[in-house]
Each structure stands twice: as C-alpha cells, then as structure tokens.
Amino acid sequence: MQDEINEKTIALYIKTGRLTAETLQKAMKALLSQGKKQIEKPPHGKQTLRQLMKQNTGVSNIEITGENIKAFESTAKKYGIDFALKKDATESPPRYLVFFKGRDADVLTAAFKEFSAKKLTQEKRPSIRKLLSAFRDKAKQRDAQRVKEKNKDRGLER
User: pLDDT tens, 22-78?
Assistant: First the structure.
C-alpha cells in the first residue's frame, strides 16, 4: 500500500526545439503552480452569497438589525462560521439577512446565545458618556454658586 502512494506519475508535454535543464525546470515550475491554483481552499468567514452557494451545502438565513451587524461579525469570526450578508432594501427601514451553511446551524445558535447575552449586559451597564455629562453639569452648578472674590492687591503698602 505504501508503494502505491509513493509511485505517482505525471505526464508533461513540452514543445521545444532543444530540451535543456533550464527549459525542463521552467516547465516543472509552471506545472506545480498550476496544481496549487487548482487546490484552492474555499473562503472562510464573511463572504459573498455566490461564494457560499458554490460550496454545495444547504444555505439557511436569519434576519438581523442593521446596528448589530458589526458585533455579530466578531462573534461569527470567533466561532468560525461561514456567512454572507444581504441587504433587503425593498422595505423601509432596510432589513439585513445573514445566510449561513445549513450544517452550521448548531454553531450559529450557540453564537447567537453569546451575542444576545453580550448585548443584554451592555444595555444593563450605565452609559459612561451620560454619567460624565451629569457630573459636568453638577460641577458647573457648583462653580456658579461659589462667590468670586476680586482683590487687586499688588503687594504695595503705604
């Protein structure tokens, strides 16, 4: 069995006037680069809908809001989900559809659980900008209440 794996042959046809080592080397490099192009791996992560459909797996979709797209992309990248985004502009406001492979459905549910838990904790936390603006207003009120004392003393005594 080991001998069968090691003994593979490749047919190479070169049309040349004079066969030299350099010509043979160029032909072999061209053949190897052509082989690498044929063995391209399918894309992972965010991709176009056409690329996702080319992978010959069942495709499912879910709806997501526009402001959550970037946050979802980071979660999908963490879980290694192949997905495609499609904007449906026929409605107002436009809705976004996330297409993913059918076999990734279980992984996608886990990713959405984490994503939704993350969003809920973000909503529960107080906004730092609102707190800062409230403290800024309080500081302005304290400064307004403080009495300003104006003394023009130049250190000259008579």
Answer: 999 999 898 888 877 776 677 778 888 888 888 877 888 888 777 777 777 888 888
Using CA atoms of 78, 83, 88, 94 in order, give the dihedral in degrees to the nearest 10.
0
- Residue 3 burial class via C-beta count within 10 angstroms: exposed 0-12, middle 13-18, buried 19 and up: exposed
Q: Is residue 44 part of a domain?
A: no
Q: Which domain holds residue 55?
A: 49-137
Q: Tell if the pTM clears 0.70, that is, is over it.
A: no
- Phi-psi map region of 118: left, alpha, beta (phi>0 left; psi -120 to 50 alpha): alpha
